[in-house]
What does this fold into?
Amino acid sequence: QVHLVESGGGVVQPGKSLRLSCEGSEFTFNNHGIHWVRQAPGKGLEWVAVISYGGNSKHYADSVKGRFTISRDSSKNTVYLQMNTLRPEDTGVYYCAKPDREGDHDRPFDLWGQGTPVTVSS
Amino acid sequence: IQMTQSPSSLSASVGSRVTITCRASQYITNYLAWYQQKPGKVPKLLIKAASTLQSGVPSRFSGSGSGTEFTLTISSLQPDDVATYYCQKYNSAPLTFGGGTKVEIK
It folds into this structure.
């Protein structure tokens, strides 16, 4: 069964860093762009970042630009989200999600991971 | 581009018709998706390309619209439809979501 699994979440102090991972299996992971979406407690969905299937195209939400970096390791079927200079407003559940078509990352998401929680607090 | 949903919440009777509106601040053709998120669950894709029902989604769900104004309609609300619904534009990054519409049973 196809799935995405996030890991790396936790509790961290403001200003610190955290790296999230998203591993995919049972589909051609390396032919898909991968997105990160977050959801603050009790709030709506916020798109965070995307990396293209080849890794050469990356885009970020204004709220994380310059602090977060998305990357991928094709040999491990894994996408990473390096989060630096974390703020309390970065608190939430972080989901990775797969577009419904290979090759085009500007597509709706037909597969989501279960999410990994991040808490930024002193 | 901003995505604005209305209403932010609604309460309706079982069997009633429910309509949710999503407005884009700029023209997005039909690059519009709808998601359903039940309490404590992961979002689920319902509709893409403004009106194409995702496989396995009940036919009581439908989408319409193009350009800047879109609607999600539930033709006969069921208890299983209690959830928050989000629109999302996907013509280009950032793939912005609307603020969500919480649907409850009256």
Summary: The longest strand of chain A covers residues 18-25. The mean pLDDT of chain A is 96. Chain A touches chain B at residues 35, 37, 44-47, 50, 59-62, 95, 100, 105-110, 112-115 (CB under 8 Å). The radius of gyration of chain A is 13 Å.
